[in-house]
Amino acid sequence: CETCSEEEAKYRCPRCMKYSCSLLCVKKHKLALSCNGVRDKTAFVSVNEFTDLNLLSDYRFLEDVGRTADAAARHATMHSPTTKRLLSCLRNKAQKCNIDLRTLPIGFTKRRENSTTFNSMEKKFYWHLKLVFPHCHAEYTLKGVPDDKTLADILKPYIDPVESDPVVCQRLKIYTVSPQSDVQILMKIENRKQNSVRYNELDASRSLLDNLKGKVIIEYPTLFVVLKTLKNDMVVLGQDANEPAESSDSESSSLSSMEEGEIRDSS
C-alpha cells in the first residue's frame, strides 16, 4: 500500500495508479493528492502498452463526444441572437483593452464554464478566473473578479499566512510558508505550437487588466502559481537561453491544437 506502507495492496486507483489496501487508505490518498479516482480518458498511452481495451475505451470516448456535441447543437439558448450579440460585445470590449479574447464553439467545456461579464456602467470586466497551484495539485475557480484588482490581492485569500482561509492555507502550506518573493505567477501563451509550450510571467503588483493586455485569452484566464525554488516543467518565455523574448509562432496552428484538446475535454 502506497498510503500506509503496512498492508498488502488490494486496489489500484484508475486515475493516478496508486496502490491502496483499504477504503480508508483510498480516501486518504484522494485527499492528499486531490485525486477524484476517475480514470483519465485522455491520458497518454504508449504504443507498447496499447491494448484492445484502450482501443475500446477510445471508441467509447469518441461516441460520448459525439453525443455531447449533438446535445449542445440542439440547445436553442446557445444559438439565440442575444447570446451571439453578448459574446460579440464581450470580444469587442476586450479588443479595445488590447486583449485578444477568443470564444470557443458551443459544447466546449470552457465555453460552458465561462462566466465573464462586462459592466457597461462601470466600464469594467468581471472575469471568470482559474487559479492552479501545481505544487499542491490544487485548482480554484473564481467568478466575478474585477479587472482592476491586483494579482497580489487575488492571491491573498489563498497563500497569505494571515488573511487566507485556514482550510485553504493548510492545503497550500508549501506556498504560505514560502516568502512572497519566491511566488511566481505564470500564464500559458496560447499562440504557440503544442510541442513548444511557454508561459508569460505576470506582475503581482499590477492589476489583472494590465497583466492581460497584449495577450491571447481563450474564454478566461488560467493563472499558474509556482515557487521559483521548486522544480517545475514550465518554461517562461524570455528566460530560456534558446528562446527569443517574443513569440513568432503562428496563432492559427496553436488555436487548432487547443481546440483539439478541448474537444476531448468537453466530454
Automatic annotation (TrEMBL):
Q: Name one Pfam family in it.
A: zf-HIT
Q: Where is this region: Disordered?
A: 241-267
Molecular functions per Gene Ontology: zinc ion binding
Q: Which GO terms describe its cellular component?
A: nucleus; pre-snoRNP complex
Q: Name one GO biological process term.
A: box C/D snoRNP assembly
What keywords appear on the UniProt entry?
Isopeptide bond, Metal-binding, Phosphoprotein, Ribosome biogenesis, Ubl conjugation, Zinc, Zinc-finger
What domain of life does the native source organism fall in?
Eukaryota
CDD domains in the record, alphabetically? zf-HIT_BCD1
Q: Which residues form the HIT-type domain?
A: 1-35
Entry's family note: Belongs to the BCD1 family.
Can you say what this protein is called? Box C/D snoRNA protein 1
